[in-house]
Design a protein that fits this description.
This protein is of the alpha/beta class. Bound molecules: glycine.
Length: about 375
């Protein structure tokens, strides 16, 4: 089992461990029982994950004499609203959960974000542990303490920074994960390779060549590498004031494409397209060596993600969504660019004509 510490600084009790391994549920129970953080836990999960894993996770903890309850919420992004958080808090009250109770977020990004948020407001804050079940949550959202829910006006408009007390990443959960969701997580892994660790790209290319993308040893390696990169960035910039923005490589265009598709494109597919746009702009404006943008496109295609904007999508719609972002950010679109693989920086503005050209070039 891989283990690493996230040292957020300040008070020591804000640091936490990330554990990564296969079939680690028994150890999760032992670690929680040993640490004696609480006798009482409430698992928050969605009905889909609950059917697959809920009872098994609960039983693994109860074996260690921990008291465990389960709360389920509906699956999917539609559930990521304040109403669901209120339902969770009402259920917690009904269960008699107190300030010594720890929440366990069992699920993907939606469950992790809304459980983290509920934990940060229930009784003015109770601890949360992340038990992510998707590759995307394992390499990204379960680490770093961002919580949030969507409102009618946009995604994650309500939220907090609330670091978990621990993150337990069991690769066994990925066995039941559909290929499409593995690809969504791989988009973020490709991002880490581009912004921080080109060796990750070599590893991905090797796994594609061998047809090994779902192999446990490979997954454990890339998850550990991703977690190490993310935790290193969060340790330096927990509150997203500067450095943490590099984690948004590909996300500026990605978010606009995702919204313009009416969320028909997944987050991973949208970020994949956004990373190709950012790489091409980096080549044109910032001297990214010739061939690197093409390599990024090839890796994206090779794992089954799109590197082109779908033909039926309206470029003007994507532009108008980028302009909304521009207003929110005070007149500038913060674009993450790269000078070379592993060397990212935040560019404060891209001339509109160049941006238009880049997007046009991504139409098939
Ligand atoms: N997913 C980007 C961040 O955690 O900052």
């Amino acid at each position: 089992m891989n283990q690493m510490n996230v040292n957020i600084g300040g008070k020591a009790d804000r640091s936490y461990e990330i554990y990564i391994g296969e079939e680690i549920l028994d150890r999760v129970g032992m670690i929680l029982a040993r640490d004696g953080r609480a006798q009482r836990y409430v698992i928050v999960t969605d009905t889909h994950i609950d059917a697959l894993h809920g009872a098994r996770v609960q039983a693994a903890l109860e074996k260690l004499d921990l008291r465990v309850d389960r709360i389920t919420v509906p699956p999917g992004e539609e559930a990521k609203g304040i109403e669901t958080v209120l339902t969770v808090t009402e259920r917690l009250t009904a269960l008699g959960a107190d300030r010594q109770t720890v929440l366990i977020a069992l699920g993907g990004g939606v469950v992790g974000d809304l459980t983290g948020f509920a934990a940060s407001i229930y009784l003015r804050g109770i601890p949360v542990i992340q038990l992510p079940t998707t590759l995307l949550a394992q390499v990204d959202s379960s680490i770093g303490g961002k919580t949030g829910v969507d409102t009618a006006a946009g995604k994650n408009l309500l939220g907090t920074f609330n670091q978990p007390k621990g993150v337990f990443i069991d690769i066994a959960f990925l066995k039941t994960l559909p290929d499409e969701q593995i690809r969504s997580g791989l988009a973020e892994v490709i991002k880490y390779g581009i912004i921080e660790s080109p060796e990750l790209l070599d590893d991905l290319e090797g796994a594609v060549a061998k047809g090994n993308l779902r192999e446990t040893a490979f997954l454990e390696r890339i998850i550990a590498a991703a977690c190490r990169i993310k935790k290193g960035i969060v340790e330096l910039d927990e509150r997203d004031r500067g450095l943490r923005r590099i984690l948004n490589f590909g996300h500026t265009v990605g978010h606009a494409v995702e919204a313009a598709s009416g969320y028909a494109l997944s987050h991973g597919e949208s970020v994949a397209i956004g990373m190709v746009a950012a790489a091409r702009l980096s080549e044109r404006l910032h001297g990214l060596p010739a061939g690197d943008a093409a390599r990024i496109s090839a890796i994206i295609r090779s794992v089954g993600l799109p590197d082109r904007i779908p033909a039926e999508m309206d470029l003007e719609d994507i532009f108008s969504r980028l302009s909304v972002d521009k207003k929110k950010e005070g007149g500038m679109i913060h674009f993450v660019m790269i000078r070379k693989l592993g060397t990212p920086f935040v560019n404060g503005g891209i001339p509109e004509g160049i941006l238009r050209d880049a997007l046009k070039g991504l139409k098939p």
